[in-house]
Amino acid sequence: MIKDNNTYNILIIEDNLGDFILIEEFIYDRIESPSITHTKSFASTKLLNQTAQQKFDVILLDLSLPDKSGEELITEMNTLNWGCPIIVLTGYTDIEFSIKSLSLGAADYLLKDEINASALYKSIVYSIERRKANIQIAESEKRFSNLFQLSPQPMWLYDIETLKFIQVNKAAIDLYGYTFNEFLKMTILDLRPATENFKPNQPLSNQVINNDKVFNDKIKHLKKNKEIIDVEVYSSAIIINNNEYRLTIAIDVTEKILYENKMTKAIIKTQEDERNEIGGELHDNICQLLVASQMSLGMLKNAIDAHSEKYYEQCKEYISESLQEIRNLSHRLSPAINEDINIEDSFRKLLNNFDIEGKYFIVFKFDKQLNDYQVNKDIHINLYRILQEHLNNIIKYANCKSVQVNLQVNHHNIVLQIIDDGVGFEISKANSGIGFANMRRRAELFGGNFNLYSAKGKGCKLNVTIPIQIKDSIEQV
């Protein structure tokens, strides 16, 4: 038989010499070179604990010693803090308590009359390895607890079925303003503002997590003081006591988004200024040069012979077409949007220019309630650019016959809706495009939402919603 060559330091606490010798023989039968220490009472064991320098891997404890026995013995042994598993050795009369001893901290119990070399060796090895595993688990839990509690970022643990908070760290308490006990009475949905709606027929858990083990998202959260903040949420599945929860980190990016929006507005203002400059140059300079050329050409008409007349007319026609194209381009680059031009008129003019050839059946519905609001010039420009961008998409890709544009007010939000009956497309592919990304960004700059609905053969519907009360101005950047 192959013996275990590992070195084991074993303490046997047994007052019966015959039982000790038998146990010792069983140990030597399976372990090559064990280090065995023997005590006969609790008192001598306690003294050994105070003087011995070595650490034991396992303790074999007779449940009935001369000076202590039973529950008192187990309890007192725990106070010695050996830091190793204790295997209780007992007779039949003590079997009921032996089972109870497991709840008091014993690693295992063995009936003396049934002990053999294999059973004893198996119990020793299993108890030692289980102790190591428990230590590793405890250390891992401590590291997790430290990372969780000491993290500078808000973290929490929640139940994936009920969405209730199970644990939150100090950073979360500091950021959101709720106490620990208040958090434990809440679900993660209580952090969502009322403006973020959930689908009533879909399980809540499916609306706040996806099927992936790890995901992240940018959402809005509501603090106890009713302040709304922007957060980046990172969440992953975690198993604790055979139950699946989700561990979440929430990073407050409110200031970051405000700064990014400020910079983006500055960029948009620069772009608009450049467009206005280019549009003005085209209208004031290039157009004037073409008009002058047209007038000069007219002065040459009487000097042209019959053979050259057709070239004269052709040249005149080219100049007229160029003038019209440049005017159209100038208007697209630099629309006449100011305090004197309302959003209804600018939209109607854009739609008229869009369908000069009369290819589409266009319906424009304007909500007269908008006249009661002071539409911010910057919102006006960005909605105009969104409509302009999407109309260009319709010309290039939609292959449609009709276009409907709705501009209305809904709960103090201005809502732009553009619908066509074209060939449609796959939303996943469209969302990765630069054009739609720019439109979405323009809407989000003013606290708005951008939603796109389409499918192959089903046309397209675009919805942009922007709070009408926002007064931020690009000029203030």
TrEMBL record:
Domain Response regulatory as annotated: residue spans: 9-127
UniProt keyword terms in alphabetical order: 4Fe-4S, ATP-binding, Cytoplasm, Iron, Iron-sulfur, Kinase, Metal-binding, Nucleotide-binding, Phosphoprotein, Transferase, Two-component regulatory system
Reactions it catalyzes: ATP + protein L-histidine = ADP + protein N-phospho-L-histidine
Requisite cofactors: [4Fe-4S] cluster
Matching Gene3D superfamilies: 1.20.5.1930, 3.40.50.2300, Histidine kinase-like ATPase, C-terminal domain, PAS domain
Record domain Histidine kinase: where: 383-470
Enzyme Commission no: 2.7.13.3
Major subcellular location class: cytoplasm
Record domain PAS: where: 140-184
Highest taxon above the source species: Bacteria
Annotated InterPro entries: CheY-like_superfamily, HATPase_C_sf, HATPase_dom, His_kinase_dom, PAS, PAS-like_dom_sf, Sensor_HK_TwoCompSys, Sig_transdc_His_kin-like_C
Residues recorded as bearing 4-aspartylphosphate in the entry: D62
Subcellular location: Cytoplasm
Residue intervals passing through the bilayer: none
Keyword Methyltransferase tagged: no
SMART domains linked to this entry: HATPase_c, PAS, REC
NCBIfam families on file: sensory_box
Protein's job: Member of the two-component regulatory system NreB/NreC involved in the control of dissimilatory nitrate/nitrite reduction in response to oxygen. NreB functions as a direct oxygen sensor histidine kinase which is autophosphorylated, in the absence of oxygen, probably at the conserved histidine residue, and transfers its phosphate group probably to a conserved aspartate residue of NreC. NreB/NreC activates the expression of the nitrate (narGHJI) and nitrite (nir) reductase operons, as well as the putative nitrate transporter gene narT.
Annotated protein name in UniProt: Oxygen sensor histidine kinase NreB
